[in-house]
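Subject: Predicted fold for Reverse transcriptase domain-containing protein, 614 residues

User T.R. writes:
Posting the sequence so we have a shared reference for the thread.
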Amino acid sequence: MPCVKTYRLHFDSWCSLLPCDDKDYDFILSGVKNGFSIVDKMPDFNTQVLCDNYRSAMSQKSLVEKQIKNEIDNGNYVVTKVKPLITSAIGSVPKDNGSVRLIHDASMPNKFCLNSLVEEKACSYMDLNYACKLIKHNDYLCKVDLKNAYRCVSLHESNYNLTGLHWKFEGDAEDTYFYDTKLPFGASKSPSIFQCLSSAVCRIMKAKFNILVISYLDDFLIISNSYNECKSALQKLLFILRQLGFHINYSKIDGPAQKLIFLGVLIDTGEMTLSLPDRKLADFHGLLQTFQNKRRATKRQLESLIGSLNWASQVIQGGRSFMRRMIDLKNTLKNHSDKALLNSDFSADLEWWLKFMKTFNGRTCILDNKPISSLQCDACSEGGGATFLGDFFYINWTLDMPDVAPLHINLKETIIIVIAIFKWASFLENKRVIIYTDNVTAKSVINKMTSRNPVVMVYIRFLFYMQAVYNFSIFAIHIPGKFNTLADACSRLHEKDKLSLVYDLLPFNPKGGCVEDTLVRVAAEYRSRGWAESTKRLYRFQLKCYLSFCETMSIQPVPVSTDDFSLYIAYLAHYKKFRFCTIQNYLAVVKHLHKANGLKDPMSDNVTHFFQYL
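User M.O. replies:
I've generated the structure tokens; pasting them so everyone works from the same file.
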């Protein structure tokens, strides 16, 4: 009899370890106990669906057959005499250890497949960018990888009729039918379900041990201040993972170290850099060159290229902008074997990557966590302007950029941001940049890195080229026009008295109107009161806490809405675990910030009522 390995999450352990107030508490415990559903609706068809297995599986028949038997022995595949409603195709991908990973193609045929029963929903992943926001200079890191991660997670029995597979074993005259009882590789909901579980592990580690861990699917990264802390955190994480029912791939544990590869990228906390490993960088460059000589490519080949570009874009800021047209071309194809003509748009994006890689050494700096937030832009029908660190500029559309003059105001608002970045790009190197604009459309275009307008996309691609060269990130925040006074004045220098208004509002003037000006005024107010240096340090720390929260939640610091202010109170109480009196002190800074700007105290009646329950 073969040795059966049981891969199943432990319900009792999840019940005892997962905090009762966890945001996914009910979803996780229900799924661990009864199985997770990988569909959002049941099929409205009764005709059985049968797909032929792929050539990738048939060409490695002995390895695939061995893996299928292992899955059956482990109870993951269950043989059935009744054909399932949906029987999908099996594919395979070679693994480094000489075995294969089975792929359950849940996307074929298009209208009658497993994935057609799923509604698209966004899922938040802890990627490398997320990790870099938490890593500090000289931190120690540890990496943990899970073994057969998806195969620990059971499916709800209502899904069994939809996860069918088939295989003709050596010596058999007919195919054997079986269904998958665990998360399949190929089901569109599998990644989001597993990310939900691994993110919960991170929250357990934080709540139980105050240890910082992030996860990307089955990869975990520990971030600690010292070697000993990191080593201790590793032992605790391994204990928790085993207790919850996960299996560890011990051969892939790495650290504690200050240099470590995570998600295919080398992180160096001593130098605070990210690097693409030399071998992978050479392979990546070779892949780009092979496409340079192609006239057509299959969907599978395009997916491979886009996956590699996505990997490189973890290090190359703005790189994803030069994948958009490749993704659009890939999405025109239905089947993996279908071919597309590589059009001029595809070639233009490919050419950008080839040119950039000639000068790129595979290494960039981790972005500074302290953002630049003094860049404000505005545009009107006649002109556009921006201000940054006491500097400003003005453009008259008709005289300076006649091609832009007839465009819609939303497009002008976007273009002026690109011009501002171009002017001050050298000051933004290795920084996180927050741009303030009073135009919602411009904010959306900058944050989504795309626009339907081809003229704007020319500017957007230039913007992201500058991102790649100077290594900075951009995030746009919308502010009401009445609070964008300095940038508004800069955009209207064709009007009488606007130039004098600009000089009145510049940051070195105590009457300034931007966020930095407000902070200067508040600091001056504190000094004028003659507070001790320790008190001023405390206020600065509290102010930093508030601004950091606003950046994380993508909300404007001044003026803050009632709902957002309530969120900040909840953040101080629930996540910071502050006492009532401490919360009062932290809120006083927000109050001063608004009063200094001539705004209403955000502690409204509704918020006061909410505050009383703390």
